[in-house]
Amino acid sequence: MKSKISVDPSLDPMKVDQLWQLLEQFSDVFIWHKSELGCCKIWEHTVDTQGFPPCRTMLNKLSFWEET
Q1: Contact, 24 vs 33, CB < 8 A?
Q2: Residue 58 half-sphere exposure, CB side, CA atoms within 13 Å?
Q3: In this structure, are residues 4 and 32 in contact, taking their beta carbons and an 8 Å threshold?
Q4: Please, are residues 8 and 39 in contact by the beta-carbon 8 Å criterion?
């Protein structure tokens, strides 16, 4: 398993060990090869906008009042 994953060589060796422990502990959550994914059966959802077009805005920083 370790040979399949490349880890940043500048990472502290203690952190690398912790990473491998985490990956081994939760190995049922991760896949190691694309063939393990199988067929996806997720439904596509839609949002009813009641006929209104999308609202497009320019990218900019939010004001203090918009953030809260």
Answers
A1: no
A2: 2
A3: yes
A4: no
Instruction: Work out the angle at residue 14's Cα, subtended by the Cα atoms of residues 10 and 20, and round it to the nearest 5 degrees.
Output: 95
Q: In sequence order, what are the residues at sequence separation of 6 or more whose Cβ sits closer than 8 angstroms to the Cβ of residue 23? A: 1, 5, 30
> pTM to 2 decimals?
0.44
Three-state secondary structure call for residue 35? helix
pLDDT tens digit string along 16-43? 889 889 988 988 887 777 777 777 777 7
Contact 36, 18 (CB under 8 A): no
Measured in whole angstroms, the distance separating CA 12 from the mean position of its chain's CA atoms is: 24
- Where do we find the tokens 């939010």? 62
